[in-house]
Amino acid sequence: MISVLVRNVVTEAQDVVRLVLGSADGSALPTFEAGAHIDVHLPSGLIRQYSLCRLQVDAQYYEIAVLKDPQSRGGSAEIHQLKIGDAVSISAPKNHFSLVDNKRKSLLVAGGIGVTPMLPMAQQLQKMGRPFEFHYCAKSPETAAFSSALNDASFSTNMHFHYSQVPGSGRMDVVNVLSRHTFDSELYICGPAAFIHDVLQQAKMLGWPEDRLHREFFSAPALDEAITENSAFQVKVRSSGALYDVAADESVFEVLDRNGVFVAVSCESGVCGTCQTGLIEGIPDHRDVFLTDKEKAQGKWFMPCCSRSKSPILELDL
């Protein structure tokens, strides 16, 4: 855990604040690469993940930008209440969304607050002299965090803004954009779950290989309750052989935690990957958005915070 202080609070767009977090003692914070995020431990006890939204200029500072989500479970609302001088604890940076080290062109696609990991990606690609194209989709410039900074950036010629509520701009033509880069680019996308899902589906239909589709969700898509029903099953712990009942209304994590089996969790919705656990035997019902389709098909990993089982028993490597 790293102790930091809120050094500045800046309104970046409608309902979006940027926090400058500085080390409490003035020492250098751990370095990171574009795409990284930190766990923020809020005063209430909530833990939330936020992308680092700029590359470091000064080693003792990190920056995050947070949308006040009307569907918030409390995290974003609490972030918006923080003031200069408030103390919070954070984790060291983690990166599940890093740039691939090759010479292909990078196609960056951001939806709304999904711009936060994309901005440092663009900065890093610019520094490395690698080709990229950046498409930013939002309702309007007023709701688009960093729109002015990106419009004036050194890589502004790489920028394409798509404002759905601005005449003459409009929504991004997803098929047109993706079809121009199917065979020569890596796709990086971040934003609302439905937005990511739609773009990835179009990419797959156009022939993009899955290993060139890189995404980061801020929240999991809502499950269709009409077709998604929870059934009871049992979870087995490999190290002890213990077998525990998982009722239809509780998660694997909740059962393990109640029985003293430690599993690190953070988002509790299958987004961040913190709880990723090895799967020994059984048929998982994957409900996370962290694992790729290929990883889910391989059946080696399981997210106990949200996923369930299609078989009577699921054995985990714990």
From TrEMBL:
Keywords, alphabetical: 2Fe-2S, Flavoprotein, Iron, Iron-sulfur, Metal-binding, Methyltransferase, Oxidoreductase, Transferase
Q: Matching Pfam families, A to Z?
A: Fer2
Which ranges carry the FAD-binding FR-type domain? Answer: 1-100
Q: Residues in domain 2Fe-2S ferredoxin-type? A: 233-318
InterPro entries in the record, alphabetically? 2Fe-2S_ferredoxin-like_sf, 2Fe-2S_ferredoxin-type, 2Fe2S_fd_BS, Beta-grasp_dom_sf, FAD-bd_FR_type, FNR_nucleotide-bd, MRET, Riboflavin_synthase-like_b-brl
Matching CDD domains? fer2, PDR_like
From which domain of life does this come? Bacteria
Q: Which residues form a coiled coil?
A: none
Which SUPFAM superfamilies does the record associate with it?
2Fe-2S ferredoxin-like, Ferredoxin reductase-like, C-terminal NADP-linked domain, Riboflavin synthase domain-like
User: Does this UniProt record's set of keywords contain Oxidoreductase?
Assistant: yes
Q: Name one GO molecular function term.
A: 2 iron, 2 sulfur cluster binding
The record's annotation in PANTHER family points to: CARNITINE MONOOXYGENASE REDUCTASE SUBUNIT, NADH OXIDOREDUCTASE HCR
Can you say what this protein is called? Vanillate O-demethylase oxidoreductase
Q: Which organism is it from?
A: Marinomonas profundimaris
Its lineage reads: Bacteria, Pseudomonadati, Pseudomonadota, Gammaproteobacteria, Oceanospirillales
